[in-house]
């Protein structure tokens, strides 16, 4: 298959021992607000040819320098394959004590699938790089285009790299994960399910792993979970490629193919396909995005929605990722309440479902912290739509019209509309059954 790439390990040898064509700056981040009392060491590499007058691309490497990355980048920049690129090599955090380390924070930072690590990169690490003046007077200026930003990691760093880009595709557009920890450790095994359901994000992704990678059998097979995520990415239509080879949980193969992965990452063409998600394929309109609109008044957050023919209602449950469904008798009397709609969460916390509305096909659109989750008639999430960046999905109202959906942040009154292939339900008309399967 065109996305299953295999490289020769010999490709790496040409880069070993390459002379440095950059300066290196070592520094430390202290007093983190996102990871309290935690210290992070990092290194910045700046190409000798960068004069500071233009914007540089960005490479973030986790667990410090792996894959001989600075030397490889120097060579690829000299070849014209890689644009002028500033490297940032981050060590995971730790909390120091009088007699050593009080707490290692690597798993908490890297394996978690919530948005904290991406926020740490955005708010604490990258501001320490952007605008920094070097001893020779040059100033680091980073491109604002996420397509110019790549992030790499190995093992727990691999899932951290993927998750940082997944959570914030406006920060990173390119991801290389080696032996990624997409296993049931801190929710990594849930990502492949969410990838299949979420509207595609503008990411270019490369996954690598070895056939015998089962680093810790308590959590399962790293290789199997990498293959599951790869399958999900292909299904969802991503510009993605994979390398599966002999070997276990090791940086050896990851390093061997690193130069070719970098060439693949920075190639000019994009190979993306349409999503295989039938509901997304039906409702999404190419090029349509959220647009700010003015509303005469801010709608109330109801936390409930009535089915088009008034036979039942869906309602939120406090501090839960479940919604209930309650049947309504002909006279409107509620009965037979049960937990029914199940929502996705990145971090094991309630997603705070708020506004919700049914469309003409009987799908329930639910505003949550993790996007608008669209449930079928049997209570299962089939699709997830990204929210506008400044809308709080835990306190929002949602309205479905013919050909468009409107989302409103209750606290601020900010409202956005987006075109979808969707229709508003006709009162009293029961949607066509989607069956029991």
Report on this structure.
Helices cover about 20% and strands about 30% of the residues. A hairpin with a 5-residue loop joins strand 14 and strand 15. It has nine helices and 22 strands. The model is unreliable at about 5-20 (pLDDT under 50). The chain has two domains: about 10-275, Alpha/Beta hydrolase fold, catalytic domain (Rossmann fold); about 280-420, Neuraminidase. The longest helix is centred in the middle third of the chain and has 15 residues, at about 220-235. By secondary structure, the protein is of the alpha+beta class. The strands form five sheets. The protein has an eight-stranded mixed beta sheet, sandwiched between helices. Strands 11-22-21-20 form a four-stranded antiparallel beta sheet, with no helix packed on it.
CATH class of the largest domain reads Alpha Beta
Structural class: alpha+beta
Distance between the termini: 31 Å
Helix content: 10-25%
- For the record, what is the CATH homologous superfamily label of the largest domain? Alpha/Beta hydrolase fold, catalytic domain
Give the domain tally: 2
> How many H/I helical runs?
9
Describe the structure concisely for a colleague.
With 437 residues, the protein is α+β, with helices and mostly antiparallel strands. The chain is built from nine helices and 22 strands.
Layout: helices, strands, pairs:
Blueprint (H helix, E strand, L loop, with lengths): L21 E8 L10 E8 L9 E6 L6 H11 L5 E6 L3 E4 L2 E5 L1 H5 L5 H10 L23 E6 L1 H12 L6 E5 L12 H7 L6 E7 L11 H15 L2 E7 L5 H6 L1 H8 L12 H6 L7 E3 L10 E3 L5 E5 L5 E7 L5 E9 L13 E3 L5 E5 L2 E5 L5 E5 L10 E6 L2 E6 L5 E5 L18
Parallel strand pairs: 3-4, 3-7, 7-8, 8-9, 9-10
Antiparallel strand pairs: 1-2, 2-4, 5-6, 11-22, 12-13, 13-14, 14-15, 16-17, 17-18, 18-19, 20-21, 21-22
